[in-house]
Write a structure and sequence with these properties.
There is one protein chain. With 469 residues, the chain is α+β, with helices and mostly antiparallel strands. It has helices spanning 27-38, 57-63, 75-78, 81-84, 96-105, 111-134, 141-158, 173-187, 194-201, 203-227, 236-242, 254-284, 287-300, 309-312, 316-328, 361-364, 368-371, 385-390, 409-426; strands at 41-46, 49-54, 69-71, 138-140, 334-339, 343-345, 349-351, 356-360, 427-431, 439-441, 445-447, 451-456. The protein has one domain (27-456): Cytochrome P450 (Cytochrome p450). It has 19 helices and 12 strands. The protein is globular and about 70 Å long.
């Protein structure tokens, strides 16, 4: 019996392969659509390169098995390596620095560390809201959430202020980062001739200049902290510069510290901004769910805008809204897995050692076998504890899987719940009824052209004193 290969998209061309139907602008949404049409797995072949995509929860469960599979760093992640090199997100499994960085940084995401970041997060939320109060009350949501998330990770992680909501212009780091991510996104789609076109148009050169500029900014931050160290660790940068790997006794060198900073700036801000943008869209278009979340927030602190650290864990309705948002629109469209040895998936498709595939979360998170007939609907109560216990865990993986799953997920949850709760408490918001969701792709997916109109809510008891923070 010959090798059984997964289904492929229609209109395969001899020699060239599955070039017809490629979408360079929305590749992941196109991939999710194809999975929805032809089944839980398919394979695209382009000029001899085979790309395998999984969208069924049961097959995803197989490739989540760390005994047989591990994190893969294929072309899309390799394109990030000129920026982040062997950072946590882009390191190959056999590179030692990610182990070292993971061990050193794990304490930075403990409960005690979350408490130390809380006030800085709250300050950034407050700056954003004051900027909204001073503006016209109508803004592009993805832009605002991107500024918020980048400002938060910059200050909490590295003591760097972009001053996103207080300066008249834009910190040049932001457009450099955005342009670089756009370049990488375009390069990730294997369109013949793209490299030549980008070189001739100067886009490749501009990308290189962007990367060099970002390196210089981060190197300056590291050098300044080394020249003016804190008495005790206050943030991620302090930990990376002063903490030794508990296993080897080694510290990270300055270059790897830079790689980790850029990893957190890139991956940390993109995922959080994406989730918050979609959460606001879904709540704005589901006013009954927004009212439930707002009532919970109002009951917790009825008269002021202060969220205490211990309050965040009590906001279970807000947390469910975020979880349901990340189910429908995952923080990252998917993750890559590589076979550690020859294996078979779905009982019929042979996979060779070293071969990789992508788990497409937008489809796994909507698999009716796990999520039911209403899998495409926004229903936060599906994250009530009794429903969560009744579902298999492999059906929900917004932060990836295994040892290489996102180390900062508790940071992200705290940040997102705090921000969304504050926005719900301070504002009523509406969306243009004629707006139709358009999703743009870069490293993550984000609503495009989605604007909110916000109006400040009247407090029940504006004279009540603010509790201690």
């Amino acid at each position: 019996m010959g090798v059984v290969r997964p289904p492929h998209p229609p209109k395969r061309v001899p020699l060239i392969g599955d070039i017809i139907g490629l979408d360079a602008v929305k590749p992941m949404q196109n991939t999710a659509r194809i999975l929805g049409e032809i089944g839980p797995i398919y394979q695209r072949r382009i000029l001899g390169m085979r790309l395998t995509f999984v969208g069924g929860a049961d097959i995803a469960a197989e490739v989540n098995n760390d005994a047989t599979w591990q994190k893969a760093v294929p072309r899309p992640l390799q394109l990030l390596r000129p920026i982040a090199e062997d950072g946590l997100f882009t390191a190959y499994n056999d590179e030692p620095n990610w182990h070292k960085a993971h061990a050193i940084l794990a304490p930075a995401f403990s409960q005690a560390s979350m408490r130390s970041y809380h006030q800085t997060m709250a300050d950034v939320v407050d700056e954003m809201c004051r900027a909204w109060d001073d503006a016209s009350g109508n803004f592009d949501v993805a832009d605002e959430m991107t500024k918020f998330a980048l400002e938060t990770i910059g200050r909490c992680g590295f003591g760097y202020r972009f001053d996103s909501f207080t300066r008249a212009d834009v910190d040049p780091f932001l457009p450099a980062l955005k342009d670089s991510l756009g370049y990488i996104q375009a390069q990730g789609v294997p369109v013949p001739g793209r490299k030549i076109i980008d070189a001739l148009t100067g886009r490749t050169g501009q990308h290189q200049r962007n990367v060099e500029y970002m390196f210089q900014v981060v190197d300056d931050v590291i050098a300044d902290r080394q020249a003016h160290p804190h008495d005790e660790p206050r943030d991620l940068l302090d930990l990376m510069l002063t903490t030794k790997d508990p296993e080897t006794g080694e510290q990270l060198d300055a270059r790897n510290v830079r790689n980790q900073i850029l990893t957190f700036l890139v991956a940390g801000h993109e995922t959080t901004a994406s989730a918050l943008s979609f959460a606001l869209y879904l709540l704005a278009t589901h006013p009954d769910e927004a009212a439930k979340a707002r009532a919970e927030v109002d009951a917790l602190w009825p008269a002021d805008d202060v969220v205490r650290f211990e309050d965040v864990a009590k906001l279970r309705t807000v947390r469910r809204a975020i979880d349901e948002t990340m189910r429908l629109w995952p923080t990252s469209p998917g993750y890559f897995r590589e076979a550690k040895r020859n294996t078979v998936i779905d009982g019929q498709y042979p996979i060779k050692q070293g071969q990789w595939l992508m788990v497409v979360l937008q489809q796994v998170h909507r698999d009716p076998a796990v999520w039911g007939a209403d899998a495409d609907q926004f229903r936060p109560d599906r994250f009530q504890s009794e429903e969560v216990r009744a579902r298999p865990g492999h059906g929900y993986k917004p932060f990836g899987t295994g040892l290489r799953a996102c180390i900062g997920r508790q940071f992200a949850y705290h940040e997102m719940i705090l921000a969304l709760a504050t926005i719900l408490h301070r504002y009523n918001f509406t969306v243009d009824p004629d707006y139709t969701l358009e999703v743009a792709e870069q490293m993550t997916l984000k609503p495009s052209g989605f604007r909110l109109t916000v109006t400040r809510r009247e407090r029940k008891d504006a004279s009540a004193p603010s509790p201690a923070q």
